[in-house]
Amino acid sequence: MTTPLLEMKNISIRFGGIKAVDNVSISLMPGEVVGLLGHNGAGKSTLIKILAGAYKADEGEIFVDGKKVEINNPRDARAQNIETIYQTLALADNLDAASNLFLGRELTTPFGLVDDAKMEAESRKIMARLNPNFNRFSEPVRSLSGGQRQSVAIARAVYFNARILIMDEPTAALGVHETAMVADLIKQLKAQGLGIFLISHDTREMMELCDRVSVMKNGQLIGTERVEDVTEDDILSMIIMGKNPKREAA
Amino acid sequence: MTDSTQSTGATPAQGDKNLFQSLELDMRLLGMIGAFVIIAIGFSIATGGNFLTPRNIFNLTVQTVSVAIMATGMVFVIVTRNIDLSVGALLAVCSAVVAIVQVRLLPGTFGLEIGSPWIAPLAVLSGLLVGTLIGVFNGVLIGYQAIPAFIVTLGGFLVWRYAGWFLTGGQTIAPLDSNFILLGGAEGTLGEFWSWVIGILASVAAVWAVYSARRNRINHNFPTKPLWAEFTVGGIFVVAILGFVATLNAYAVPAGKLRRLFEARGEVMPEGFSQGHGLPISVLILVAVAIVMTVVARKTRLGRYIFATGGNPDAAELSGINTRLLTVKVFAIMGFLCGLSAVVAQARLQAHTTDIGTLDELRVIAAAVIGGTALSGGAGTIYGAILGALIMQSLTSGMGMVGVDSPLQNIVVGAVLVFAVWIDIVYRRKTGDI
Question: Which residue of B has its CA nearest to A118?
Fold first, then answer.
């Protein structure tokens, strides 16, 4: 059996008296898309924020390529090539696309000054690949549409050769056409061998894009199943009832 | 304009818009320059032309420097969604230290000869150091201990002014070192020849900046402005720089003072000799601060992070920016600039007084805000803040010349601040900017 690209083992985190994530273990293989499902407040976002370094787990361990790693802040996560596309679109609205794309990792000239021209050129290259219609490079991203903003957020993750990509509701703010674009992109990245965690409320979309789905409720992991082994109804009942029908039947 | 026949009704406005768009000039900057021109012409008429004499322009410039230096730092503070209410107090404590070092410590305790060339640089250094350290202290309290900037600096407003008072025992300290006084303004100017040299060098640099920016965009195949627009912008820079130098050169040094200078060298002043003031050293300090701060804001990672954090603190944090350390750096810069302003203000007044810099916090914040810095964070420019400081100083000094009573002066300045911000809000709402 090959080593998983990523393993999170027995992760727990408390906020005040509430266990937002309670002893959860999940894994991700190279070229695999794992969906995280559950109601609002089930703990999905908290779990991936631990992986992204936004929160620090109270208990549990994280392994990348079988090696234990410490992720204490977003910089640590980036050092492990873990990139995150947040639900809330973590973009600085007052800056342009290139500045956002390279935020925290600016390209600099030999004098140590930021090289805006180089960054814009690189942004133009990658956007030509992801969203060829995109041409608003000199405007602050606040004036862009939801889809355009999303493509900036995705470009940021893709440009820096992510190995593990976390996508928190990447299509929530998008129209039909843009959603299809993101779905194509996920397939493309998967083919390149990236491991992807996908969070979404759209069960049908998840059945189509994911290899496995993990369902959470009240901070606990209800179960992880291969999508070909379960029906959409099975997943819905896991989300709603917090029970694993396959296991109950067996 | 040729295709304007097709569109209905919007022709003249369309033409104006296209002109400004091709020049890519900042509308807010134009608005501020417009306001400044109206103020200048208004006071000029009211004073029978005295407001726009070389002498008054010289004085106005020299009076603006101290507040303008601090205003550039305040831009960073406000852009990161903080505020600093203690800059006037910080200036006072730095000034106290600078005065004690040059008048008491160095000649007294360390036995340096009075007039020693070491006194001025060491005194300046002490002021910059104290300012920076207090800034770091403020930044740590705000960034790492999460005490709101408003509270930390409101406390500092009392603490630092009276710390300065405590150090000097409430005494006015004078006379200051003769080299030190050169940093204040009227006493330290470059004279006509060197002012022209600096003016010409600055013009060349401005034209080169326009040219290299264009070349850079062409190299990367980015869209460029039309060539005539580049020439217009470059031309405006050159005219402004050389016009400013010519004006300051036209303000002649009083004959009596010149005669004393010649006598000090044991010479006799030739008949009919005259000499213009030229650029004051304090103005060169402000220009240097403006250039460095603009480069920091636009061309360094620090500046990029300052604006990103102001625009979306969460996004900045998630992008791996250490926003706490950033807060410390921003307040350290603010403190450093307060120290520098203390040097300039004290040298101009030729004494340290306990009330030096009183109400400067309000002038500095007003300058930054009038200059287009948004209190909601994420937006602001260095040149805007300097222009804001100049507008505030013009109002105060113009009203003084016209003979407006002091209480009324402050009422007008306060009202203008609120009015300027209101105009800005209306403008932003219309253009959809935040």
Answer: B220
